[in-house]
Amino acid sequence: MTAVDSWPDRLWRFLRAELADFPGRGNALLRNLVACTLVIVVSMSLEVPLLALSLIMVFFVSQSNVVLTRMAGTLFIISATLAIGIAILLLKFTYGYPLLRILCTSVVFLASMFGMRATRLGPLFFLVAIVTIYVQSLVDLTAQPELLLRACLWVWMAVVYPILVTLLVNTLLLPQEPQQQLREAMLRQLTQVQARLAALAEGRAQASGISPTEVQQGVLSLHKLLKFASMRDAGYRAREVQNLALITCVSRLYAAVYSLNAPATDIEALMALRQDCAALASAINADAVSQTPPLHSEALVRSLAPAALEEMRDALRALAASERVPPDAGAGAKEPLLVSDAFSNPNYLRFAFKSWLAAMFCYVFYNAVDWPGIHTVMLTCVILALPSLGASTQKGLLRIGGCLVGSTLALLCMVFVIPGIETLVGLLAMSLPVIGLGAWVAAGSERISYAGLQIAFCFALALLEQFGPSIDLTEIRDRLVGIVLGVLVSTLVHGLMWPESEGDSLRRRLAAALQSIAGLLRAPAQVPAAPADPLHGLSLRSWSQLAECQAMLARVALEPGWQQGEHEQLTLFTQTLLAKARDILLLTGQLQRYRALLDAQLPMPLRAWLGEHQARLGAWLENYAARLQDPTVVPGGLPPLDPSTEVGAGGDALLRNLQELHRLLDSLPDWQHFEYGALAEQHP
Predict the structure, then answer these.
(1) Cys-Cys with 355: which of 309, 385, 402, 504 at CB 3.0–4.6 Å?
(2) How far apart are CA 111 and CA 107, in angstroms?
(3) pLDDT tens digits for 439-484?
């Protein structure tokens, strides 16, 4: 390890990347700040208790677009009503009988934790579980049944009214419409395409500035936004086929321009394609894609070099042809409520039991030591109840880190700012910068977003829970102790009892992604009938699988004791494999596109040779994927590529792509060598 690779440098690079601005982050910050300001004013003016809970609901409900925000808001209102109703019903029959109350609560909690894993309504059951546990701490703090009932009803009010405020802000004041997000995402990609074509026309040979990871994110984000736009707008649903063809065209242009790394001599083709991309961008911006002007590249009936230019021309032609296709009235099948192995997989019941055991241990502990201030220890056990050790560890670290930042800021404000505050305006001036910091972090990726919620929640819990100046430091101390203790207990219980590791699942996911790429490599090369594009469908599935592998790797790397001393090397190995898989997927897609475009120009022997060699390479990649899961699979040799093959006119680009693909496949590292401790730096 060099000084550059030391953990402070890596931490600094991580924070700089995660806290950087990106399109939509400023809007998310503004929406959260406006909603939190309204909630603080309403709660302080009308003396609605549990302001910290109200603020955290704003963060939970406010999503990246209006569709997700409405879905989250509706689900939370239903979940909160159901959870409070169940809690009140339990208290009605078990209030004077502690043992019966704990037994009934345990049954509800176990059923809720099982429902989190075994159904598609995980957030609903999560809220039922956490409210059920939270009410137990209220019972210990409240001696009168009437006050306890009022406390439960205030919890419902503190949850529901900020959700309505958040929906109002996100729908009327600062709407983030998925249609507009989709339009902006396509325009950003087309802008990069035009800039690259202009640079090539001017003879500049610098790198394209587009990485395989950006291609992956671009493809997946367009499809995700199209789904939300269709849910939001009936017009998008009516033009689903045409819109799918549009995002397919943009994705093909974006992926094709990635491979243009050298100046092209065909200036006419570059300028014509750039004009077409500019016209397409103007049509998207004006929401008039169906009236796309005639393509300038239609006049280029000759072969274009490099072949990526032909791929871009074909993508634009396919889009023009899709406008003549009638919409598809078919609807996709809905997913079942229960997962397929709901009652056959023992991990779901074990997960529920482990979560219950950790929560009950913490409940008994803080009552035995008579320290009710650390009741958040139970909530921490529920929050960290996640399917894998890596995910639980990641969330635990974010929870502790966010709590430390929020508590430190609260302590500084309590000492230096609170003595000078006399009005609600001063309270807002003190609180909103910290809430804004939490909102900025919460709008980031899943690797840091939960820390933003904790920053805002811990700060509000320390300073905004009372309707007057707060000078009690014990709340800060008790919450931090409760969180650290809850993380330790939850980690120990889930790590010692039936631990669920994603290490083996990561291998299976990697193998499935490589098998999907192999399927794309072996697929017949044919010009798709507009707007159907089987090659794009296969590529989309492979990109999605690689993205899932990347997210899983981030969780697996945090699993306690994962591969012991080989932890860091194995993480680096998997990252290298994923990076090479992205390159292979991009090159495979380009090779298949070029074959489809040039198929009619190639002689039959060459077409047969290409198809046979791609099939052999695909079979080798499938064998490599099988060895990731089963070390006993016999490795096969990579089929050699005959450099003396006569390709004829127009086939040079195909042969170059095939040679590059052969080189990438040959550079794939061997997981078996790593397992036996012999991983060498043989693959750059």
Answers:
(1) 385
(2) 6
(3) 999 998 888 889 999 999 889 888 888 887 777 788 788 888 888 8
Neighbours of 579 (CB within 10 A): 15
Half-sphere exposure of 457 (CA within 13 A, CB side): 24
* d(C-alpha 624, C-alpha 277), whole Å: 39
d(CA 91, CA 256): 63
Burial of 375-408, coded b for 16+ CB within 10 Å and e otherwise, reads bbbbbbbbbbbbbbbbbbbbbbebbbbbbbbbbe
Residue whose tokens read 């791929």: 311
Q: Cα Rg for the chain, rounded, in angstroms?
A: 29
DSSP SS3 for 500: coil
Which two structure tokens, joined as six digits, stand for 393?
């560890």
Residues 352, 110 contacting (CB under 8 angstroms) = yes
Q: What is the mean pLDDT of residues 558-566?
A: 57
Which helix (H) or strand (E) covers residue 617, if one does?
helix 604-629
**Residues contacting 349, CB < 8 A, separation 6+:** 114
Q: By the 8 A CB rule, do 274 and 201 touch?
A: yes
Location of structure tokens 């193998």:
511
Count Cβ atoms within 10 A of the Cβ of residue 276 and give its class: 0-12 exposed, 13-18 middle, 19 or more buried: buried
Residue type, 142: T
- In terms of average pLDDT, the best of 40-44, 280-284, 630-634 is 40-44
Compute the distance between CA of residue 493 and CA of residue 357 in angstroms, rounded to an integer: 8
Instruction: Tell me the per-residue pLDDT of 233-263, one tens digit each, with 9 for 90 and over.
Output: 777 777 777 788 888 888 888 888 887 766 6
Q: Following DSSP, what letter does each residue of 141-173 receive, concatenated?
A: H--SHHHHHHHHHHHHHHHHHHHHHHHHIIIII
Q: For residues 295 and 320, is the Cβ–Cβ distance under 8 A? A: yes
In 417-442, alpha helices (H): 424-442
Three-class SS of residue 119?
Answer: strand
Q: Which residues sit opposite 119 in a β-bridge?
A: 338
Q: Which residue's entry shows tokens 């998310």?
A: 28
Q: Is 294 exposed, middle or buried (0-12, 13-18, 19+ CB in 10 A)?
A: exposed
3-state secondary structure of 338: strand
Q: How many helices (H) and strands (E) does the chain have?
A: 25, 0
Structure tokens at 99: 């043992």
Write down the pTM of the prediction: 0.82
- Angle among Cα 640, 518, 613 to the nearest 5 degrees reads 30
State percent of the chain over pLDDT 70: 85
Write the pLDDT tens digit of every residue in 59-85: 999 988 888 899 999 999 999 999 999
| Amino acid letter, residue 42 | V
